[in-house]
Amino acid sequence: MRKKTCVVTGSSRGIGRGIAERFGNEGCEVVVNYRSSPEEAEAVVDAIESSGGSAIAVQADVTDVDQVEQMRAEVHETFGPVDVLVNNAGINQDILFKEMSHEDWDVVLDVHLDGTFHCTQTFYDDLVAAEEGRLINISSIVGKGGNFGQANYATAKAGIFGFTRTLALELAREGTTANCVAPGFISTQMVEELPEKIKDRIREDTPLGRLGTVEEVAEVVAFLASDRSSFITGEVIDVNGGKDL
User: Fold this and answer.
1) Transmembrane segments in this chain: where (predicted)?
2) What is the pTM of this model?
3) If DSSP codes are grouped into helix, strand and coil, which group holds residue 216?
């Protein structure tokens, strides 16, 4: 993967940060995208550069196509065309469906679905022109099984499955792959803030008996971004400790 240019949306924290830093360790040129946390994004850039990689932080709200197009211009000016796009940016707005407003619904679908659409369409020509272009979308176990109080999030994450498989068919003729990673419960700040009794229940319901790590998700993404995955496309890779078993 050395010298590949990789864009990771929403990578100032959590799983996105882990993916960006993993790419940096591979010697990639990494674009750390963020919406509203410049200090955290620059900290990721510093971590990548300290490990010998190259990185820049670029602000862009993925729900705004103009900002995404400006991000592409900044990336091209610094690194050139993009080889790998990881659509990771996401939010949750949890509330029971009976009490869910249109705003609660729209804001989650806007980030996950519109954001994925905007970024993929904006960088589409880059991925097609790349020697081995890679589109990787981050979904969730919730997209498969649903989750109490997350009708908006589950719908958005399920939509990413269909989007990925369709893009895999359309990109295949160009030699570009599209795959999806669906993490289970990962030890991020959001999960760690859950009450301990809920985390205990998650561990009990997971065959491997623990939360996953950001590094474990990033390792799968790095594999899918590499030339070792050249005959894999249209797949949803679960990283969930056997939660579906």
Assistant:
1) none
2) 0.96
3) helix
